[in-house]
Design a protein that fits this description.
By secondary structure, the chain is α+β, with helices and mostly antiparallel strands. The chain has 15 helices and 16 strands. β3 and β4 form a beta hairpin. It is elongated, with a radius of gyration of 28 Å. The relative contact order is 0.11. It binds adenosine-5'-triphosphate and magnesium ion (MG). Adenosine-5'-triphosphate binds next to β6, β10, β11 and α11.
Length: 427
């Protein structure tokens, strides 16, 4: 085989997150963790690869994901495996496998990580993307539905994007209620078959509710005039929905009732919701979720209750950046310049003393040599607030010079202990 030295690029739709971008990610991840733990949610960590069967059985054979978006391959022993396209199925698989859902246990869980879908890459839509998933188990009543919505709302507030997202809410009722509705919907759509696009004609037999989810502009009037699922719900589903909306009213969380909101996955029932924005073009859903009680038995568990949501991290980040209201933390506080043989050594010793005294300090020591001038340039570029300067003269006096890199101030020479105290009080 011929070898070349041509550079190898990343896979289309799979992106590197570069050092200049990671502070934004870390900041959001930090806030997410704080909010989740303030509601008593626990982290679970799950494999990225699962048996293909798990996704087929949970997400549903006739969904976009299973029909055309999964990265599926044969393991060396011939097992069909799939890179997870979402986290709900794997999370539930893990909880069932480890007996977490036995004896009326209640769980509030979260996970974050990469998901994989073979979609057409565009802004806000990638082949490897990151989700935060929140899943709760064992609670039948709509208070938990309200809690996870309140939790997501608190997240928007903490991230200062609450004014950029709106909550859309619907109820999908039970399997039996949906079956009745499905017939009515198919009857209606059959009459207007000539207005359906190719995808929708195909879905008429396989998954007609998904037609309501179509973004095709020429079908919007047809969809708006379709029979509404809400009209076919029974008393229990209606009451569940009414109690949830009453909780949201009490909490002051505004919502829009969207009777066309059906969600792409098969496993939802009763509550479904999406947080959407108009500020990210057509990729407007930031966070989506719902109740999926039925999935537990479908994956071999006893009858039980579950509700959760998944949040697209890239879309969230894009919104946070648009609003520009979060102050991004510095990645370097202090840059230590060392010129001269003694200063090189003493600089390292002093840097370690500083880290002992101020464990949270972000201290970068100049490595790779250079004159005072070139090291100052690097100090400035690092974004540090202060430069500490050590030349052999300072070492001889047992001092270090401190210079504010951001505010015009006289440079001062301080004894080591005074410099440490100064940074402790100033940073
Ligand atoms: P969409 O309608 O945008 O395709 P979806 O219904 O397929 O979304 P879910 O499976 O509900 O999405 O996933 C939850 C969230 O994950 C979405 O609301 C979105 O923020 C994010 N997400 C889904 N697919 C992608 C992707 N390919 N790239 C980036 N983010 C995604
Ligand atoms: Mg999708």
């Amino acid at each position: 085989m011929a070898t070349t030295n041509q550079a190898i690029a990343a896979i289309r739709g799979m992106h590197d997150i570069l050092p200049e971008q990671t502070p934004g990610w870390q900041q959001i991840e930090h806030i997410i963790r704080e909010v989740l733990s303030s509601y008593g949610y626990q982290e679970i960590r799950l494999p990225i690869v699962e048996k293909t069967e798990l996704f087929k059985r949970s997400i549903g054979e006739v969904t976009d994901i299973v029909e055309k978006e999964m990265y599926t391959f044969d393991d060396r022993n011939g097992d069909s495996l799939t890179l997870r396209p979402e986290g709900t199925a794997g999370c539930l698989r893990a909880c069932l496998e480890h007996g977490l859902l036995q004896q009326n246990q209640v769980h509030r869980l979260w996970y974050t990580g990469a998901m994989f879908r073979h979609e057409r890459p565009q802004k806000g839509r990638y082949r490897q993307f990151y989700q935060l998933g929140v899943e709760t188990y064992g609670m039948a009543t709509p208070d938990i539905d309200a809690e996870i919505i309140a939790l997501s709302y608190r997240l928007w507030q903490r991230l200062k994007i609450a004014d950029k997202v709106t909550l859309q809410l619907n109820s999908l009722g039970t399997v039996a209620e949906r079956a009745v509705y499905r017939e009515k919907l198919v009857d209606y759509l059959q009459i207007h078959r000539d207005q359906l696009d190719e995808d929708s004609v195909r879905r008429l037999d396989t998954n007609p509710l998904r037609i309501l989810d179509s973004k095709n502009p020429t079908m919007q009037t047809l969809i708006e005039n379709a029979p509404a699922l809400m009209d076919y719900l029974g008393a229990d589903s209606r009451e569940h929905f009414a109690t949830l909306t009453a909780y949201l009213d009490t909490l002051g969380i505004a919502y829009q009732f969207n009777p066309r909101l059906v969600r792409g996955l098969d496993y939802y029932g009763k509550t479904v919701f999406e947080w959407v924005t108009t500020e990210l073009g057509s990729q407007g859903t930031v966070c989506a979720g719902g109740r999926y009680d039925g999935l537990i038995a479908q994956l071999g568990g006893k009858e039980n209750y579950a509700i959760g949501f998944a949040l697209g991290m890239e879309r969230l980040l894009a919104l946070v950046e648009l609003s520009d209201a979060l102050a991004v933390e510095r990645s370097v506080d202090v840059y230590l310049i060392r010129v001269g043989e003694q200063a090189q050594k003493q600089g390292f010793v002093f840097a370690e003393q500083l880290r002992d005294a101020l464990p949270k300090i972000k201290l970068q020591v100049n490595c790779g040599g250079g004159s005072f001038k070139s090291q100052f340039k690097k100090a400035d570029k690092s974004g540090a607030a202060f430069a500490l300067i050590l030349g052999d003269d300072e070492v001889a006096r047992g001092e270090v010079a401190v210079k504010n890199l951001r505010v015009e101030q006289e440079q001062q020479s301080l004894a080591y202990s005074d410099a440490i105290a100064f940074l402790q009080n100033t940073l």
